[in-house]
Amino acid sequence: MVLFSRFFSSVLLAVLYASYGKAAARPGDVKFSTHHVRDLGNGVKVEVFHPPSNYKTFGEGLDVPSSFFDAPIENKTVSFVSSNLNVDSAKVSFKSGFTKDNDESFGYAEQVHDGIPFVNAVANVAFKDNKVVAFGQSFVDTSKAADSKPSVDVSAVISKVEETLQGKKNDIEPTLEYLAQPDGTAALVHVFQVQNDDTGTWYQAYIDAHSGNLLSVTDFVAEASYRVLPVFKMDPTEGLELLTDPSLPSASPNGWHLSKGKDTSGNNVISFKGPQANTTTESSDGLIFDYTYDPSVGPTEGDNIDAARTNGFYVINTHHDTLYQYGFTESAFNFQKDNFGKGGRGNDQVLLSIQDAAGTNNADFATPPDGQSGRCRMFIFTITTPNRDGVLQNDIPLHEMTHGLTNRMTGGGTAKCLQSLESGGMGEGWSDAVAEWFVRSDTPEITDFVTGTWVLNNTEGVRSRPYSTSMTTNPLKYSDVAKLDEVHDIGEVS
Ligand SMILES: *[C@@H]1O[C@H](CO)[C@@H](O)[C@H](O)[C@H]1NC(C)=O
Ligand SMILES: *[C@@H]1O[C@H](CO)[C@@H](O)[C@H](O)[C@H]1NC(C)=O
Ligand SMILES: *[C@@H]1O[C@H](CO)[C@@H](O)[C@H](O)[C@H]1NC(C)=O
Ligand SMILES: [Zn+2]
């Protein structure tokens, strides 16, 4: 959008878009610890950077000089950081700290250059029984720090930033700080907050005090949180996590929930059990879906139904948002209730029925043409005691949802092209391949992939052989297709 991009230098924009393309490429990138391109949803993208950090724990603890023992937390923190990093204590500023009654205390400090503190070069020290038990820090080299006297006054940039962030500066006093940049420089920045009471946005903005450019923001608003199995994990043995704001505004501009909705019913998918209205409602205010899946009891016990509906909602939405970036958009016949006037037919969000009573030990996806909802049914697996829920084995809903993708994108949204044996086999192979791509997206290594291991409780999974680059592990070749007459078997030849 011209209105908003005007504010950025074109060079910066080019860099941001280039890195956005890379950052968006793989869903596992959410794990990367230093960069995050924040899409503000109105055509503006800013890069949030945190310098590489280093965190150490010291087991029983690291002895510290006895002069530390009765010193206030401020003094202990500054002394430890400056001596450990071998920097002058004037380069370390105590920020905050607290002490617990069991003789544990925690100090937080910021790096300082020319008397000005850093936003993102910080340190934290944990003390216990007069020893240091943990130390984390992200201090940076300041040799390329910008001049500490601003050449652009904060009053000159406020209105531009308000326009970009579509809000008003609040009455918190602006501050002057340093912001460590990905290229090793440190920018001098004006820092202030911009809020919009109507839309609920609330940012802290960092504006270069020499160029006037908006360099970064902190978003204070958490839109929604879900306790789920991140898409780069396969099954609950790898641990569920509480993810905050996993939706991508460029793919789901209004987030994953309907306006005023507080349940697992949204623009891309409705996740329910039994009747479509039987969804999971937030566990606490603010779209928090924090239900813990307990694998030691059956899928219908305790919070497990809510955890399953939440995981299914998250996985299908993440598939939607990720594939959207690769072109599975409204005009390319995707699944959305509201297409926001961007082409294609709406009213066809995925209907995800978890623990569907129609079957066991399987899952399916029915793809009608664009404009009619896809129907995804996930079944309970009865091989183990207690039984296991197919929707908690991420590669299964990812496989099923990919049938929706390939049936819609092959042949122009009519959903009737992958019906012959060989094309159906390609559909199965694509579904396994996309599922693998998601669950392996946090690692650059290519390892053998076996799908469905947890629900079956065996290492061989549901296919005849692992997907593998080794011709010994998986010797299937295209010539084998002629000998096969089942779609999943044909799909394995890939
Ligand atoms: C703690 O640090 C402050 C400020 O540097 C100093 O004035 C004070 O004397 C120190 N207190 C102790 C107990 O070392
Ligand atoms: C609706 O969901 C609840 C759990 O929230 C579940 O106990 C119940 O069986 C579901 N209803 C039907 C008809 O499946
Ligand atoms: C999974 O299989 C192992 C043996 O292969 C068995 O000991 C274990 O009880 C099984 N787990 C469940 C939950 O059925
Ligand atoms: Zn399939």
Largest sheet entry: 5 strands, antiparallel
Helix fraction? 10-25%
Query: CATH topology of the domain at 1-30 and 222-494, what is it called?
Result: Elastase, domain 1
Q: What is the count of DSSP helices, taking H or I runs of 4+ residues?
A: 9
CATH architecture of the domain at 1-30 and 222-494: Roll
N- and C-termini, Cα separation: 42 Å
Rg, nearest Å: 26 Å
The gross shape turns out to be globular
The helix-strand sequence is HHEEEHEEEEHEEEEEEEEEHEEEEEHHHH
Mean pLDDT: 89
Beta content:
15-25%
Bound molecules: 2-acetamido-2-deoxy-beta-D-glucopyranose, zinc ion
Which residues form runs of ≥5 with pLDDT under 50? Answer: 1-32
Question: Can I get a quick summary?
Answer:
The chain has 494 residues and is of the alpha+beta class. The protein is built from nine helices and 21 strands.
Provide structural commentary.
The structure is a single chain. With 494 residues, this protein is an alpha+beta fold. It has a domain at 1-30 and 222-494: Elastase, domain 1, CATH 3.10.170. The chain is built from 9 helices and 21 strands. It has helices at residues 2-5, 10-23, 73-85, 158-165, 304-324, 395-409, 421-439, 453-456, 487-491; strands spanning 35-39, 45-49, 54-63, 92-100, 104-113, 116-128, 131-137, 168-169, 175-180, 186-195, 202-208, 214-219, 225-228, 241-244, 269-272, 288-289, 350-353, 363-366, 375-378, 380-381, 388-389. The strands form 6 sheets. The chain has a 5-stranded antiparallel sheet with strand order 3-7-6-5-4, with helices on one face. Strands 8, 9, 10, 11 and 12 form a 5-stranded antiparallel sheet that branches. Helix 5 (304-324) runs parallel beside helix 6 (395-409) and helix 6 packs across helix 7. Residues 1-32 have low confidence and may be disordered. The structure holds 2-acetamido-2-deoxy-beta-D-glucopyranose (3 copies) and zinc ion (ZN). Belongs to the peptidase M36 family. Its cofactor is Zn(2+).
